[in-house]
Write a structure and sequence with these properties.
4 domains, cca-adding enzyme, domain 2, 10 strands, 22 helices, 8-stranded mixed sheet
Length: 417
């Protein structure tokens, strides 16, 4: 077992982190708990550390008792699988007892607890995720290759790749996610072949697990190479059957990169779909996406009004009024990605601040004012308001209440009740 040190990075020196480790070691002794996975990997690779996970030889009831004895909150989030969440200083720490798989079906596993760190490492997905560090920052690398993989950007399964996938088919998507976020150079050929050969296993996963991994893949700084691999191996069409090529997606990522825009995983998902609101709604339902993301996809994939780079300020205001600034900007980005960008990039970009800075006005007319003009209450009120609104929009949202009232009178007088 290789032993090296990452020192004591900031996240490890936090009082709330030290409190959790101290609570466990007060019961199990020094070395009974180690940091594991992402926090160790990200420290080695220079990525930010968000979640701090801990592995321990202590079993869940002992972990809960130790935390409570130290005045920390213990939440039994998954005790059957050995997981207890500690809350220290308002931050959650996921603590999991060392485990080995007893039985798996590709979606869930029956586990038994163990005190063997190497045995626990063997059930993890990739070697760079099977890294542990104690409270002093000493790294433990049971596979012997995890640290080297992390530094070289290699995503390699622990042990036999097919076995790891058969244990949990989601590891196919996790392979592509980690390749997008941490991979450097060509992907591991054995891992890629295993993912392609067992891709049909993905159909047995819940839509929520698939969509979560897909969005994480798309959130990488530059996932173009990985998405290309997913398409080539038949995995992308399996999880996103309505996808129609990846050229617009690749162009969108290029725009975000070149123009220094923040990467937008949700918009990248829209870029993979055809311009049809129904495709957004169907994809959202199939992947069990949130209502908010469903609505965004539906709005972004609409085709009316047509968005072009040479919209005048007046036309831009009309489109923003109809769509809302957020949907308009989504449509601009998608249309930009589908266009010959070098010729019109400046024009496309100029549309965005125009939309974002324009305060979308409200029609200066109420239903009561329509009734006061002689229109009987009922459906006609809405009809009259729509006609006045169309005139108001056509006059570039004229900021003149008197003119709007005069138009109301003209419309009302011209209608037969």
């Amino acid at each position: 077992m290789n032993e090296l040190s990452i020192g004591t990075p900031g996240w490890m020196r936090l009082d709330k982190t030290r409190a959790v480790m101290a609570a466990l070691e007060a019961v199990g002794g020094a070395g009974c708990a180690r940091f594991v996975g992402g926090c160790v990997r990200n420290t080695l690779t220079g990525h930010p550390v968000a979640d701090i996970d801990i592995a321990t030889v202590l079993e869940p009831p002992v972990v809960i008792a130790a935390l409570e004895a130290a005045g920390l909150k213990a939440v039994p989030t998954g005790v059957d699988h050995g997981t207890v969440t500690a809350v220290s200083g308002g931050k959650p720490y996921e603590i999991t007892t060392l485990r080995r798989d007893v039985e798996t079906d590709g979606r869930r596993a029956v586990v038994a607890f163990t005190t063997d760190w190497a045995e626990d490492a063997q059930r993890r997905d990739f070697r760079l995720n099977a890294l542990y560090a104690d409270a002093q920052g000493t790294i433990f690398d049971p596979t012997g290759e995890g640290m080297a993989d992390a530094k070289a950007g290699r995503i390699v399964f622990v042990g036999d790749a097919e076995t790891r996938i058969l244990e949990d088919a989601l590891r196919i998507l996790r392979f592509f996610r980690f390749q997008a976020w941490y991979g450097q150079g060509e992907p591991d050929a054995v891992a890629l072949a295993a993912c392609e050969g067992l891709r049909d296993r993905l159909t047995g996963l819940s839509a929520e697990r698939v969509s979560s991994e897909l969005l994480k893949i798309l959130a990488a700084d530059d996932p173009r190479t990985v998405v290309r691999l997913m398409a080539a191996t038949g995995i992308l069409p399996l999880i996103l059957p309505l996808a129609r090529g990846i050229s617009r997606f690749e162009a969108l990522v290029a725009i975000e990169t070149e123009q220094l825009f923040t990467c937008d995983a949700e918009l990248r998902l829209a870029a993979l779909l055809p311009d049809d609101p129904a495709s957004g709604a169907e994809t959202a339902q199939a992947l069990r996406l949130s209502n908010a993301l469903r609505d965004r996809l539906v709005a972004a994939l609409g085709t009316e009004p047509r968005i072009v780079s040479w919209l005048s300020p007046r036309e831009t205001r009309r489109a923003v009024y109809r769509l809302g600034a957020a949907a308009f900007c989504d449509r601009v980005m998608l249309a930009w990605a589908a266009s010959p960008r070098p010729a019109a990039g400046v024009q496309w970009r100029a549309l965005l601040p125009m939309a974002q800075s324009w305060p979308r006005p409200a029609l200066p007319l109420t239903g009561d004012e329509v009734v006061a003009a002689g229109v009987p209450r009922g459906p006609l009120v809405g009809q009259v308001m729509r006609e006045v609104e169309a005139w108001w929009i056509d006059h570039d949202f004229i900021d003149d209440k008197l003119s709007v009232v005069e138009r109301l009178k003209a419309v009302a007088q011209g209608m037969a009740y």
